[in-house]
Amino acid sequence: MSGIKSKQEAGKAKGIPESWNPEWRRQARCIGKMELFFATSNRFLEEAIAECDTCPVRTECLAVALDSRATHGIFAGTTPRWRNELLLRRPNVRSWRDLLLGARAEHRRRYDIPYSHTRQ
Ligand code: SF4
C-alpha cells in the first residue's frame, strides 16, 4: 500500500468540510430554462421542482438563494415562501453556505458517500 491518500480521503479523515463547487452554475440543470424557474404560473412549478430533484448542485443553489434572500423563483426545489419561512425560523444563521456545506459533509461522512464536483 502506498500510504498516499487522495485529497478527499485526507479531508474526510481530518473532518475538513468539503469545498464549495465553483462550477456549480455551469452544472445546473436549469441552464436555458429560466422561464420555467421564474414562471408566475403554478403550471410550471412541479416541472421546475422535478428538475431540481435531479440537479447535482442543489446545495450551492440553495445556499446562494438563502444568503442572497432571493424573493422570486424556484431554487433547489424551494419556493420563495418556503425560503422566507425558513429564514424567519432561523434568523441567527449568518452563512447558509457554511451551514449547508457542513451539513452535506456530515451526511456524506455518515453514509460514506464519495464527494465529487463532477458527479451527475
Ligand atoms: S437546484 Fe438550483 S441550479 Fe439546480 S435546477 Fe434547481 S434551480 Fe437550477
Short description:
The protein is built from 7 helices and no strands. It has 120 residues and is mainly α.
The largest β sheet comes out as: none
Coarse morphology: globular
* Helical amount: 40-55%
Q: How many DSSP H or I helices?
A: 7
Low confidence ranges? 1-5, 13-17
Cα radius of gyration in angstroms: 16 Å
Protein structure class: mainly alpha
In oligomeric terms, what are we looking at?
Answer: single chain
Ligand identities: iron/sulfur cluster
What are its keywords?
disordered N terminus; binds iron/sulfur cluster
Describe this structure in words.
With 120 residues, the protein is an all-alpha fold. It has one domain. Helix content is 51%, strand content 0%. The longest helix has 16 residues. The two termini are 30 Å apart. The N terminus is likely disordered. Bound molecules: iron/sulfur cluster.
Task: Present the secondary structure layout.
Blueprint lengths: L6 H8 L9 H4 L6 H4 L7 H9 L4 H10 L12 H10 L6 H16 L9
Helix pairs in contact: 5-7
The chain binds iron/sulfur cluster.
